[in-house]
């Protein structure tokens, strides 16, 4: 019997933190990752543009017969998820809903902090998702634009990273949030530092972990999980030359990437 | 008599530091600025892609009858300048040559430092340009990836910026460079901090200033300068929604931007 893969995409390398959690939770699954490195970042682009890109990439992955799609990108999850669910005949999982759900479950006080890129925070996607689950929740948000370049630079525990975290997180800490959602796929790399900055009374919610948990639940419910005795294969596609993706990606995935192939979505479209 | 405009383009807002110097040097000139905000950044894209984008944007500006083109983007200057010069019948000025020329003029020791984005440094474009002018020059380079997000965040004189500058510039300082080229259009915003970090014995070369000087020389030589009694108008076009461009751009331009229009280069191409 042949098993279908889990498809995962992001605008760049960030989604590899989600892939890492998926591999950790379900090492038997085959995966196909697509990083749109030619068009990264999405956060500064209009919703129309992001929706168009998301449909192109999902078509590419669906042609490779994936059984489930993970949108490992906060920007796409915020603007394109419902459209993708309507348009493609497979389960589609974003990164916002799982993180929001977990935050509501673990918060005792209902005061929940959310950090992310400027685009994600401005979209209010996490605030809305949390409020849908608990209308009484109080959501405090903060954009942390320097966290992405710090993570990509590998500056995750030096003094620059520490001062940046203190500056960004001070207000949330003083406001007394008891739960903080890491609303950007790059942030798991900074988790030890964010944890240290917020102190032991604040529970961190890692959207990457929660998304992997959602994927496992859905595949289990639909009886689409491979037997745990198997060992998964992992394929990587990017839209621009792979060198930078490989260099930064190895740090993000916490291990060695396999082969990374470059594809041109325009050519694919004509062929498809 | 009607006067033609100076055309300027960059992948985003950074080129506004070049525009600022052009307006300072030639306040009588009309300008048209194009920021490719839908596709920023270029530094991570392949040369083929960058060349294609540069030709699209130059065509857009040439249709608006510009008299000279300023490529206010280091990535494009490094890979596409010769192609643009061959293909379009107007003078084309990049940001690398003027900075390299000035560095060779002012350096006494011939030990010249160059800082820029990872892409610019990896391209060795400044090193080659400097060596062409002085084969004996010793060029020391350093990529400073966090400087762009620091400038866009407006963190240009706090402790995070200071420690980042110290970390990036320490080796160049210890190596005893007497001249440092700011090889990225975002870096003029950090000039006071970089100056403080390098100390009074190091001359900073601001590529934006030198590029404006080159433009003035060429227009003067070709008798294309407007009379100094005139007052220039400034138009701005971007390829994605203008909100973020306007917010960050006002800081970069050191003043109020006028109206900013969004254009879709695909539509333009059909129409053109």
Q: How would you summarize the topology of this molecule?
A:
2 copies of one chain form a homodimer.
Chain A: E1 6-10, H1 16-25, E2 31-35, H2 47-63, E3 68-71, H3 74-87, E4 92-93, H4 96-106, E5 111-116, H5 118-123, H6 125-133, E6 138-143, H7 147-153, H8 159-174, E7 179-182, H9 191-198, E8 203-206, H10 207-221, E9 234-238, H11 243-253, E10 260-262, H12 265-271
Parallel strand pairs in A: 1-2, 1-3, 2-9, 3-4, 5-6, 5-7, 7-8, 9-10
Helix pairs in contact in A: 1-10, 2-3, 4-6, 4-10, 8-9
Describe, in short, the structure shown.
The structure is a homodimer of 272-residue chains. Chain A is of the alpha/beta class and 272 residues long.
Distance between the termini of chain A: 26 Å
Average predicted local confidence, pLDDT of chain A: 93
CATH class of the largest domain in chain A: Alpha Beta
Structural class by SSE content of chain A: alpha/beta
Low-confidence segments of chain A, ≥5 residues, pLDDT <50?
Answer: none
Gross morphology of chain A: globular
Tell me the total number of β-strands of chain A: 10
In DSSP terms (H or I, runs of 4 or more residues), the helix count of chain A works out at 12
Q: Tell me the radius of gyration of chain A.
A: 18 Å
What's the order of the H and E elements of chain A?
A: EHEHEHEHEHHEHHEHEHEHEH
Strand order of the largest sheet of chain A: 4-3-1-2-9-10
Main sheet summary of chain A: 6 strands, parallel
Pathway (chains A, B): Cell wall biogenesis; peptidoglycan biosynthesis
GO molecular function, one term (chains A, B): glutamate racemase activity
Function (chains A, B): Provides the (R)-glutamate required for cell wall biosynthesis.
Catalytic activity (chains A, B): L-glutamate = D-glutamate
């Amino acid at each position: 019997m042949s098993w279908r893969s889990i498809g995962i995409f992001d605008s760049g390398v960030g989604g590899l933190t989600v892939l890492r959690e998926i591999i950790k939770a379900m090492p038997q699954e085959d995966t196909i990752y697509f990083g749109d490195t030619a068009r990264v970042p999405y956060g500064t682009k209009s919703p129309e543009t992001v929706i168009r890109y998301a449909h192109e990439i999902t078509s590419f992955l669906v042609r490779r017969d994936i059984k489930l799609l993970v949108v490992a990108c906060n920007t796409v999850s915020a603007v394109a998820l419902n459209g993708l669910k309507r348009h493609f005949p497979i389960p589609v999982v974003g990164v916002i809903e799982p993180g929001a759900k977990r935050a509501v479950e673990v918060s005792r006080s209902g005061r929940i902090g959310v950090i992310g890129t400027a685009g994600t925070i401005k979209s209010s996607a996490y605030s809305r998702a949390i409020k849908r689950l608990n209308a009484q929740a109080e959501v405090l948000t903060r954009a942390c634009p320097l966290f992405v370049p710090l993570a990509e630079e590998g500056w995750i525990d030096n003094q620059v990273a520490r001062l940046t975290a203190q500056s960004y997180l001070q207000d949330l800490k003083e406001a007394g949030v008891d739960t903080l959602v890491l609303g950007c796929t790059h942030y798991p790399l900074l988790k030890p530092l964010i944890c240290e900055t917020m102190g032991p009374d604040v529970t961190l919610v890692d959207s990457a972990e929660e998304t992997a948990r959602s994927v496992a639940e859905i595949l289990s419910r639909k009886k689409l999980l491979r037997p745990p005795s198997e060992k998964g294969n992992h394929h990587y596609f990017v839209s621009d030359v792979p060198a930078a993706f490989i260099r930064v990606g190895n740090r993000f995935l916490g291990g060695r990437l396999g082969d990374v192939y470059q594809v041109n979505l325009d050519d694919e479209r004509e062929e498809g």
